[in-house]
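Subject: for your reference before the review

Hello V.,

The reviewers asked for a structural picture of the protein, and I figured it would be easier to keep everything in one thread rather than splitting it across files. Below is the amino acid sequence we used in the manuscript, unchanged from the supplementary table.
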Amino acid sequence: MIELTNDSLYGGRLKIKQAKSGYRFSMDAIMLANQAEINTNDRVLDLGTGCGVISLILAYLHPKITVYGVEIQKKQADIAALNVRDNNLEERVSILNQDIKALSPHQTSGTVDIVICNPPHIEKSCGRINPNDQLAISRHEIKITLDEIINVAERMLCRSGRLFMVYPAKRMVDLIDRMRSCGIEPKKMSILYTKADAGAKRILMEGVKGGRPGIKINKPLIIHNADGTYTATAQQIFGF
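And here is what came back from the structure prediction:
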């Protein structure tokens, strides 16, 4: 049996269990969920939901949306389903334990308005693969590649539907190239810095299926002050 920790966000109003060892959700997931622009009654698909953190945050912040979280690893999917129940979100959040690549719109009662994803971002051929399967699958393109994620997003999105992703800044060109090649036009981007004097760490990207060319670059998102404390922006995002 997996040993779980009991964590929370938003002053304890959102409870999240996750494995004590192995993959645990990161700042990336929280940033992505908080920065995604969601409309009332949107239908949202969370690809690679893990313990369900993005699905849970979105359902908490937007009480009229419907969310489908998809996770290939059964142990992670079981934890996500437990978190959904613990937060009384069964009527609005569904967890699907399956391979993302096999998804079809009939499983979500039609195409969705939003696809959101914090994907594995290390190419399989790059770097040492962690011996822990959970960590390896979550970080490396073992079960799914960037190309495959974008293809699934295009298939699952309605016309003018939106894709939100967080990705390493050093792979920005890869992400933009793959999105455009699948007919999802990059429209908004935020660049994430750990500190103001550090290099860019992550990008948050929004793309629109069938959108016209033209991208807006938002103001930088800086997480830490020079003394290591969280910036006011980060505190707001993390619900401190």
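For the response letter, the relevant points are probably these. Residues 195 and 228 are 8 Å apart (CA to CA). Residues 74-86 form the longest helix (13 residues).

Happy to draft the paragraph if you're swamped.

O.
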